[in-house]
Write a structure and sequence with these properties.
By secondary structure, the protein is mainly α. Helix content is 80%, strand content 0%. It has twelve helices and no strands. Helix 5 packs antiparallel against helix 6 (102-116), helix 7 (125-140) packs antiparallel against helix 8 (147-174) and helix 9 (178-191) packs antiparallel against helix 10 (198-214). The chain is rod-shaped and about 95 Å long.
């Protein structure tokens, strides 16, 4: 029985393959359309794409085109070809604005860019595109069932941008460019007042001011140490129990000692 079932399975597989190969070679676009639909329904998206690519130009403007280009978009999406999927979804939305699939296509087209968004340390061009596309979707479909997911994705993308900007600002502290660090971290806090990185930004601004102060020439030391004191108070006011409290207090004690010695 098992042997018979295996044989039958092979017959079906080879028959299906043979049918697909015939569809690829035929000039009959209707046959290709039918086979592409079967493959799509079976989840064989890569094979469906090959056939749809062959017949897409012939079906533009025809009644079957809406279904064909929806399958085309979804097939690219299912095979994680997000650039091509985004293009096809956007074309679908533009070409079939009254389709019952238009809201889904608009959302998935925007989502494709979020799938292309890289880790925060890399170039964020696709992240900005994703933010723009998702915001456009939210504005166009404020009552969409996809809204919760769209908002969640949008928040995650914005947080990624925040992290990128924060890490860039902090990098000045890492490379000992303390003046630039203070400016960049100040700008970061001003631009992202609700950021989860605010405590870290305030500490590294304080550390930068501290390092600049204790390593200054005598004529600038007192002024810069007082700037560092102000940065300390800003950090403690924002988060009295900051995770940086111990080291921040030790640095502050050094500032106070240096200022006393300096004024003697």
């Amino acid at each position: 029985m098992k042997k018979l079932l295996s044989i039958l399975l092979l017959v079906v597989i080879f028959g299906s393959c043979s049918e697909y190969q015939k569809a690829l070679k035929t000039e009959d676009v209707a046959v290709k359309f039918e086979m592409a639909t079967k493959l799509y329904d079976a989840g064989k998206y890569t094979d469906a794409i090959r056939l749809i690519e062959q017949i897409a130009p012939a079906y533009r403007g025809k009644p079957q085109a809406e279904k064909l280009f929806y399958m085309f978009s979804q097939s690219y999406y299912k095979t994680k070809q997000y650039y091509l999927a985004a293009y096809q979804f956007e074309s679908f939305v533009s070409g079939y604005p009254k389709s019952e699939k238009v809201e889904e296509a608009a959302y998935l087209g925007a989502k494709c860019f979020s799938m292309l968004s890289p880790v925060y340390s890399l170039d964020q061009t696709d992240t900005f595109k994703a933010i723009d596309k998702l915001q456009g979707f939210i504005d166009s479909y404020p009552n969409s069932t996809y809204l919760p997911e769209a908002n969640k994705t949008l928040r995650a993308l914005n947080e990624k941008i925040e992290k990128k900007v924060y890490e860039n600002a902090k990098q000045y502290n890492t490379i000992l460019d303390y003046k630039s660090a203070m400016v960049a971290l100040d700008n970061f806090v001003a631009d992202y007042p609700g950021t989860p990185y605010k405590e870290d930004a305030l500490f590294y601004k304080y550390d930068s001011a501290y390092q600049l102060g204790i390593n200054s020439i005598p004529s600038k030391m007192a002024e810069r140490l007082n700037v560092a004191k102000t940065a300390y108070y800003t950090l403690i006011k924002f988060k009295p129990d900051t995770k940086y409290k111990k080291i921040a207090d030790e640095m502050f004690a050094t500032i106070e000692t240096d200022l006393k010695n300096f004024t003697k």
